Amino acid sequence: MAKNLNLDKTESESDLSELTGFIRAYRYPICSEFSKEHPAWGMDSHTDSSVLSILSCEDQVGGLQVLKNDNWLTVEPISNTLIVNLGDMMQAISNDEYKSVKHRVKVNRYKERISICYFVFPKEGSVIRSINYKPFTYTEFQKQVQQDVKALGFKVGLDRFKHTTTAAAAITEAC
Ligand SMILES: O=C(O)CCC(=O)C(=O)O
Ligand SMILES: [Fe+2]
Fold it and tell me: Domain 2-123 belongs to what topology?
């Protein structure tokens, strides 16, 4: 991807680090109390703050949905297959050429769901430089996300770091 985007090799290597990645395992219990009209979410709609997120759904129980062209698409689990989601840091690094995908997880009525996710983050202190965003470090991004969630109840994300005043417009729109 770095090659496709003509990114500087040293700089893109410093934006990716195995050392700052982590693995998280999830268990989504069975939930029978929902209907088509009132679905229940194991995880609400969000974008990952990572560079990349690699998902493995251990028991082939579906539920993951991704937003494409304003439509929620169900990701059918395929055995021995990993799903790679692009996160906010990849969107910034790629100057918005690659988009951080909005996704959510629906709970299952009959089976619990186990998934394992590996999140890749930028190296500590590495500055994300992009035409569309002010330079920032992942630590600064995360701090802003936490502040917004606390103050507004939702993540504003990359719009906060846009060069223009669209950040304010994005927040007003979301309210
Ligand atoms: O459990 C999943 O398949 C997705 C989890 C997820 O989206 C996340 O941890 O950010
Ligand atoms: Fe996610």
Answer: Jelly Rolls (2.60.120)
Give distance in angstroms: CA of 146 to centre of ligand 2. Answer: 16
- Closest atom of ligand 1 relative to the 104 alpha carbon: 7
The runs of H, that is alpha helices, within the chain are 9-15, 88-93, 138-152, 166-174
Residue 24: active-site member: no
- Euclidean distance between CA atoms 164 and 59, whole angstroms: 45
User: What was the pLDDT predicted at 43?
Assistant: 95
**Closest residue to atom 1 of ligand 1, CA basis:** 115
The closest-lying atom of ligand 1 relative to the alpha carbon of residue 115 is 1
pLDDT at 49: 96
Joined tokens for residue 100: 């951080």
- List the chain domain ranges: 2-123
- Judge if pTM exceeds 0.90: no
- What pLDDT digit, counting tens, does each position of 83-100 carry? 999 999 999 999 999 999
